[in-house]
């Protein structure tokens, strides 16, 4: 959702929501992970969940989890290089989430094999992490390895069933690769 559409929706809703929307940064596209709905700040800044405002990126008191979620928000906003740079600031870049987000940004930059390598590291750390399984499956679809994508779909089904977003999204990508 862009800043303009947030403003318009809030003005239509009326009341103090309009004033709040005028000062809010744009939101990244939605997903189930925290970073997917986090506000995206101007270059050189990041959103601090604790203070709920944009701060300088190199602020020492922002947690790795916050930085990883913000990197994902940047990636969902198609700011892939900035997402990777944010991930480079993590004290511990070897978490399932951070590796997944690095894989996502890398894959979206067209480096699918490199993205897959990050996804596989993430899966090793947390085999039950459905979001990484979805993105790994999408990478396999991009490579034309539909059998491997379907394997990920089956695994997602055991993790969260067929009604979860990750299952629906990967199933749709397998049926229509142009949706990736």
Q: Helical region count?
A: 9
Total strands: 4
Shape: elongated
Strand content: 5-15%
**Portion in helices:** 55-70%
Radius of gyration (CA) equals: 17 Å
Q: Termini separation (Å)?
A: 19 Å
Oligomer: single chain
- What structural category arises from helix and sheet content? mainly alpha
Main sheet overview: 2 strands, antiparallel
Mean pLDDT equals 83
Describe the fold and architecture.
The chain has 180 residues and is mainly alpha-helical. It has a domain at 1-95. It contains 9 helices and 4 strands; from the N terminus they run H-H-E-E-E-E-H-H-H-H-H-H-H. The protein has helices at 3-13, 16-22, 64-76, 80-87, 96-108, 112-125, 130-142, 146-160, 165-175; strands at residues 26-27, 39-40, 45-48, 53-56. The chain has a two-stranded antiparallel sheet with strand order 1-2. A two-stranded antiparallel sheet has the order 3-4. It is elongated, with a radius of gyration of 17 Å.
């Amino acid at each position: 959702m862009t800043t303009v559409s947030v403003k318009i929706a809030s003005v239509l809703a009326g009341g103090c929501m309009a004033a709040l929307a005028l000062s809010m940064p744009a939101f990244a596209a939605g997903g189930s992970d925290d970073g997917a709905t986090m506000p995206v700040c101007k270059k050189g800044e990041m959103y601090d969940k604790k203070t709920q405002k944009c701060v300088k990126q190199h602020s020492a008191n922002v947690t790795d989890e916050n930085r990883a979620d913000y990197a994902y928000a940047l990636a969902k906003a198609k700011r892939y290089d900035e997402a990777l740079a944010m991930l480079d600031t993590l004290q511990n870049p070897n978490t399932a989430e951070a590796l997944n987000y690095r894989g996502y940004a890398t894959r979206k930059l067209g480096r699918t094999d490199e993205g897959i390598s990050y996804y596989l590291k993430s899966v090793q750390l947390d085999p039950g992490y459905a979001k990484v399984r979805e993105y790994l499956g999408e990478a396999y679809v991009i490579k034309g390895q539909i059998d491997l994508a379907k394997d990920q779909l089956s695994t997602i089904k055991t993790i969260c069933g067929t009604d979860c977003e990750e299952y629906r999204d990967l199933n749709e990508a397998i049926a229509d690769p142009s949706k990736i």
